[in-house]
Amino acid sequence: MKLDSSVSAVITGGASGLGAATARRLAAHGVRVALFDVNEEQGEALAAELGGVFCKVDVTDDASVDQGFEKARAAIGQERILVNCAGIGGSAKTAGRDKKDGTTNHYPIDQFNRIVQINLVGSFRCSAKAAKGMLSLDPLEHGERGVMINTASVAAQDGQIGQTAYSASKAALVGMTLPMARDLMSEGIRVNTIMPGIFETPLLARLPENVKQSLSASVPFPKRLGSPDEFAQLAETMIVNGYFNGESVRLDGAIRMAPR
Length: 260
Fold this sequence. Notes:
Elements: E1 8-12, H1 17-28, E2 32-37, H2 40-50, E3 53-56, H3 62-76, E4 81-84, E5 95-97, E6 104-106, H4 109-134, E7 146-151, H5 155-158, H6 164-184, E8 189-196, H7 202-205, H8 209-217, H9 228-240, E9 248-251
Parallel strand pairs: 1-2, 1-4, 2-3, 4-7, 7-8, 8-9
Antiparallel strand pairs: 5-6
Helix pairs in contact: 1-9, 3-4, 4-6
């Protein structure tokens, strides 16, 4: 797919981090972008910078997502590109003991459900609604109508202690990539997934410098955190390379996460 002003894109979690980097890279090619996010201040500022549109969207809420797509399509037209970057983390053991008093506990079920609802169900919700909209588009070269990219994590394969919910949600994104691509193949819609490693995102930016240095040292090569624009570069490649379909790709500097 050629990236220019004839193409529009929706990026969930687009107000910061990986989503913002992807929005900037697409907009640099002239693509009209819509940012879905709950952070209104950051989202509005970035949309103004890029000449796009911000839509305050909670990906766990069906009506909110519908309203977001309605607003986006009214402003920039039916999207041919969807990049799902909205997601959260969280850590707790499946079950354990309190180190102070020895009392036992288990992973809070509501926390587990929230992570799955945002990371997995939210991504599927946006993908299904975007794909339905793409069906109305005229096909481009080789019958292509659109492309969708989900954001998983290396935790989909190397989940660490406490990452049961997070890893499950990300592994499920990897698991649905190929069947979703097969669902949509006759309509000319491609589906891929990126599994980033340790990236310089707002979440990691808040960590102490010594912790970030330790994380950087754990990457085989290059020994640094990933840049959000490197994620965006891979997303761009998945979009413009029409033979890229049904794939889940690690982007991690060859890291394999240790148990803790």
